[in-house]
Structures are given as C-alpha cells and as structure tokens.
Write a structure and sequence with these properties.
The complex is a heterodimer of chains A (242) and B (427). Chain A is α/β, with parallel strands linked by helices. In chain A, 37% of the residues lie in helices and 26% in strands. A 6-stranded mixed beta sheet of chain A has the order 6-7-8-3-9-10, with helices on both faces. A 4-stranded antiparallel beta sheet of chain A has the order 2-1-4-5. The longest helix of chain A has 18 residues. The radius of gyration of chain B is 33 Å and the shape is elongated. The chains are: A alpha/beta (242), B alpha+beta (427).
C-alpha cells in the first residue's frame, strides 16, 4: 500500500503565506493507477512533488511499502528516488544531444547500476516502448511521440515501484497521446508499478482506477477503486472550505 | 553516479557544445603555450649552461681571487664626505679598494692546501703577434694550458704536461700561418712576439706545435688563442716585468681529483684564508640563477594569460549551467545528489583544462620545431634551446586541470544547489 497522510505544504511566510495543499490523506494499493486532477494552481503538481519526495511538505507522511520517504534525508532520499521512482514529464526532458541509449542510461548511472548490467536493461526498456530501432539516434531527431516513449523507457529502465507522469500527453496530438496513454497503462499492467498521472484530461483520468480531484489544495472528490477511507478525504474537503 | 560515468558524461556534454568548448580551450592554451615554452627554454638554457661550463672548465679546477670588502658592490659607493682622521690618506683608501691582486704569498698558501695538486697563477701576457716561417703576422693572445679548458686535438696529441718549448695551435690559425692542414702544422715552429716595454727582457718565443686544438663551437669550449705551458708563461711574465711585479689577478687551483667533496674542502680552506673561489659548479649555479630569473619573468606572462582564461572557464561554465537548468533539474529529480551534479560540472571544467593544456603543449612543441634550428643558428648554443621534458608536460597538464577544477567549482556549486522543481519549471 501507498499511504499519504496529512500532507500540508505552504509557501512563503506570514502575510505572503500560501497553502498549496492542506491536510491531504489517501491510500492506494500498489500496482494501481491514480489520476490526480485539477486546474492549474489547484495544487496537483505540488501533491505529486510531495509524493515523489521532490518537495518537502511541512507536515505529513508518504509511506511507500515500508518506507516513509519524507523521513529520509538527503542522499537516502535521492537513492530511494533513483531506485524506486520513475518520472515522465509533459515536455519530455530528453537530452537532445545524447543518443537514446545514453538517455536511458542516465538513471542507471545515477543509481550506480554496475556497467555490465546496463546494456541489457536499456535494451529491455527500449524494447518495451518499441524504440529499439532508434537505439543510437540522437534524441533531438525524434518526433514528439518518440521522445515521450524514450522518456518512458528512461522512467521504467530501473523497474521502479512508482511511476509519476506529469501531463504525459500535454504536448502531443490526440492520436499520439492516445498511443502514449496505452503504453503507460500496458506497462502499468505488465510491470506492476503504481502509476500516478497528473492531468486535466478527463478521458485520460477516466482510464485510471482511481481519480483524485484537487481544488485549492483540498481533495474535493475521490472516485474509483480504492481502499482509502473515502469518507475521510471528503469530510476534510468540507472542513477545508473557506 | 560512478566516477567513470561522471567523467564520460561530462566529456560527452562538452562534445555537444563543440564551439564553446573549443574556444575556452583555446583561451587556456595560450597560457599553457607560454608556460610550456618557458619550461622548455629553461630546461634548454640549463643544459646549455652545463655544456658551457663543462666544455670551458676543467672540473678539477677552482678559480681563486682575493677577497675585498670594498669592492663587493661597486654601486654602493658612499657619497658622504669622510672626515680626515690623521691615520689613513684618501689615496690609501682608494688603493685598498683596488687591492684585489694575489701575491706570491697567497699562491704559496693555496699550494699548501692538502687537496690541491698545483696552483697556476692567472697571467696577463701582452703579445703583439704570432707568425711562422714565411707567414704573415697575426694577432693572437697566449693562454696557459692550465686554464681549465679541456681541448680536443684535431691533429697531434695534447701531452699530459706540455713541455716549455711546445705550443698548442688553435685550428683557426692553421691556414693563416701557411700550413696546409692541421697535420702539416705538427712539429713546425711558430714565433710569438711579446709586447716590448722599458723593463722587458723578452722579445719573442719560438715554440714547436705539439697539437692543433679544435676551434670553439659558439661559446662552447675549443681554443681561441695559442696555448703554452704554465711554466713558459710564468717565465715570460717575469721577464716582461723585469722581475718587478709578482702579483696576479687570480689563480687556478687544480685539485687532486674532481670529487665534489674534495673541491668543497679546498673551497673551505680558501674561505679560511680570506680568498674567494669559484668552481665550475659555482659558475653553473650563478648562470643558472640568471636563467631562472628570466624564466620566472616570462612565466609571469603565462600566468597572467592563465588567470584571464580561468575567468573564461567560470564564464563558460556559468552559461552552461544556465543553459542546462532543466537537465540538471531532471538529474536531481532522478535522484542525483548535489555532490554528483557538482562532480559532473567540475569534471567538465577539468576536461576543458586538460584539452587546453594539451593544445598549448602541442602548439609549443610545433613552434619549437621551427624555432630550435633558428635559435641554434643565431646563438650557436650547440644544442636545442627548447627542450621538452615529459615531467614538465605532466606538471603543466596536471596543474592546469587543477586550476580548471577550481575555476569550475563556482558554476558547479550553483548547479548543485538548484532546486529540481524550479529547475524543471524553467522553460
């Protein structure tokens, strides 16, 4: 299970204090797919950053498996993120000058995987996204959809427990976006990793097993297959209204 | 990230920004070029000094001069008027200052030093000309065979002790004196005509040519004047002065062997006797010191060029960090530690330093290929001035990598401190 407990993140101080997310709690079984939805500024990105340990909320816990990742410090958190998490971004963030091979190698290098093990892992990841034919192509020569597939290969090469996708189809046309979505869900099904998708695309969200709607830093609705105490976040949403 | 991965990835990052990398490296290579040439020239100069001293001085000989407090520094003259104290006259004081000649008693003292084999006073003998039967008259000095230089015979044989009535002829005079070649001159007679003076009891000397000595190569070794036995010169010296003056401007003490310990023992004896001395090693040290000062001066320019290029590295790397903000953000999001990012960017700077140093060394070597023959031609050094030693190259390259690393620290530190969320948000 992945437990999110009482996450609160504020920015600024005193008069300028701004609460991005407030007292958010829910839990999801491992291997499921979760859509975090909301308008821009709703706090959905902050929530994703908090769950992935990129950002440090003032309060709360994020327990993945046995680990409270917000309790990890510095390098331990870095190591956890490099081994157990994968990231896919809206604007791909692939290294245009590097070949596909070296793009996918980056997380392996960061997580200090032994050099002789890498080749197989990279080939495996590129095969899963059907990009083996582009192994030595430079990333900048790829189309948008190919770049995102490359980014997905990079995200899954370490076989992470949790995969975060921040608006993965936001920069793609609908046909390509559809293919990327299919790929993400089939990987989720085959590899058994938990998939968090931050999106405001309702169609994409509908394909996830769980949909969390965020508004002004609160969960306003939680739909789908969850073992989370559904009443709790809903109750909190009521309490939190200004 | 592993060490090797960091090195490889930083190298690839640089290759992707070829123009910028190349320009920064070029900037560094100018300083590296100047420093490499300085090192090479210093090395060459030291070798030249060794050759110079080695071919012009007998390693067994020590030059001896009289110590004089008043002449230590000719520029530190006291301009204040001195009050007459009734004991010493102005003329006496001036003579004291000039009193730097060695007397017979000094020569005897030197001869008594146990490690000294013999002493040869340095004699100034005035000659008018030298000639041979049926030849024209040519100007030439005479010099004692004991004066330290080791001659190489191109004809005849230089005897272990030159007899009083024999001479060594310099190669340059062979054809002038009407000999067919060096071999032809052996055994023939030459006539040295000494300068006349009211007291002089000697007009000329007749000597048989024992050997012909090779001419000097530039400043290196060889014979320039007619070489006679020390005993010959001593008798001519006394005869020329009518036995009136027996002081010498210096002497050469010839040690029993060329062991440095022996030489330094003799030198400490000489110091005790208040005599100044100079061995071949001392002379080499003195000249080398002069070379070093010139070298430091030129190296200063190289260092200034390097300082400028260090700012070039800082600048380039800062821009690089700015340009790759999102890449850094991604790496940090993927779990790269701040230290890892710091290392990656520091390695980039080190690569730049490495490349710049190699380019500089290459240019310096390339320049030396053309400069060496030219300098040798003009200065007759008897060897290359620009000498490249692997240890110098290694020092230079290593030093520049270190400097580049330091220069790269600030940008690398900025990169390491980037917040991944903000970095990823940058468009």
């Amino acid at each position: 299970m992945i437990h999110i407990r009482h996450l609160t993140k504020t920015y600024g101080r005193r008069q300028n204090k701004f609460t991005a997310i407030q007292d958010i709690s829910f839990e999801v079984p491992e291997g499921t797919s979760v859509a975090i939805m909301g308008k821009s500024g709703s706090g959905k990105s902050t929530l994703m950053h908090a769950i992935s340990g990129l950002d440090r909320p003032q309060e709360g816990q994020v327990v993945i498996g046995e680990t409270d990742i917000l309790g990890l410090r510095g390098r331990k958190l870095d190591r956890f993120r490099s081994r157990e998490m994968g990231f896919v971004f809206q604007s791909f963030f692939v290294e245009g000058n590097e070949s596909c091979y070296h793009n996918v190698a980056l997380p392996l290098e960061i997580s200090r995987i032994k050099p002789w093990k890498r080749r197989e892992m990279i080939h495996d990841a590129l095969e899963k996204v059907d990009m083996m034919d582009k192994l030595h192509s430079r990333a900048r020569d790829l189309s948008g959809g190919q770049k995102q597939r490359l980014a997905i290969a990079r995200a899954i090469v370490n076989k992470p427990k949790v995969l975060f996708a921040d608006e993965p189809t936001g920069n793609l046309d609908s046909v390509t976006g559809e293919k990327i979505t299919d790929l993400l869900f089939s990987l989720n099904r085959d590899m058994g990793n938990t998939l968090f998708i931050v999106t405001h695309d309702a169609d994409l969200a509908a394909r996830c097993k769980l949909q969390i709607h965020i508004k002004d830093g609160h969960i306003i609705s939680l739909q789908g297959d969850t073992k989370a105490d559904a009443s709790k976040p809903l109750r909190m949403a009521k309490k939190g209204t200004k | 990230m592993r060490f090797l991965d960091s090195i490889r990835r930083s190298g690839r990052n640089l290759r992707h920004a070829k123009l910028r990398t190349a320009l920064t490296m070029l900037a560094i290579s100018i300083g590296a070029f100047a420093l490499m040439l300085t090192l090479a020239a210093g090395e060459g100069a030291r070798h030249f000094v060794d050759r110079l001293v080695g071919t012009n001085f007998n390693p067994q000989s020590i030059y001896v001069f009289k110590e004089s407090e008043n002449t230590d520094n000719p520029f530190s003259q006291d301009d204040d008027p001195k009050e007459y104290d009734g004991t010493s006259s102005a003329t006496e004081n001036a003579q004291d200052a000039a009193q730097v000649a060695l007397h017979k008693s000094d020569i005897e003292k030197i001869a008594k030093i146990p490690q000294v084999e013999r002493v040869a006073p340095l004699l100034q003998i005035n000659t008018d000309y030298v000639t041979a039967a049926g030849a024209k008259k040519f100007q030439s000095q005479v010099k004692s065979v004991d004066e330290g230089v080791q001659y190489e015979a191109i004809a005849g044989k230089i005897p272990a002790t030159l007899p009083k009535d024999q001479a060594i002829l310099p190669e340059t005079l062979v054809s002038a004196l009407g000999f067919e070649d060096a071999g032809d001159a052996i055994g023939k007679e030459i006539i040295v005509h000494y300068t006349a003076s009211p007291v002089s009891k000697v007009a000329e000397g007749h000597y048989k040519v024992a050997a012909v000595a090779k001419k000097p190569n530039g400043l290196l070794g060889g014979a320039r004047e007619i070489i006679l036995a020390q005993a010959t010169l001593e008798s001519v010296y006394e005869a020329q002065r009518g036995g009136l003056d027996t002081s010498y401007f210096g002497a050469i003490a010839i040690a029993k062997d060329s062991n440095p310990a022996t030489l330094s023992q003799i030198q400490s004896h000489l110091r005790y006797e208040k005599l100044q001395s100079m061995s071949a090693k001392d002379l080499a040290t003195q000249v080398t010191q002069a070379v070093n000062i010139v070298q430091y001066f030129v190296a200063g320019f190289g260092v200034i060029a390097l300082i400028v290029s260090v700012f070039g590295i800082v600048n380039t790397q800062l821009i690089s960090v700015l340009e790759r903000t999102r890449q850094i953000g991604l790496m940090k999001a993927l779990g790269m530690s701040g230290l890892g990012v710091l290392r990656l960017f520091t390695f980039e700077a080190i690569w730049i330093g490495f490349g710049g140093a190699l380019i500089g060394v290459f240019w310096a070597y390339f320049a030396s290929i053309f400069a060496n023959p030219f300098i040798n031609d003009k200065l007759e050094l008897g060897g290359n001035l620009l000498l490249f030693r692997p240890v110098h190259i290694a020092l230079l390259v290593g030093g520049l990598m270190l400097i580049a690393a330091v220069a790269g620290l600030l940008p690398a530190w900025k990169a390491a401190r980037l917040n991944p969320i903000e970095a990823l948000r940058t468009e």
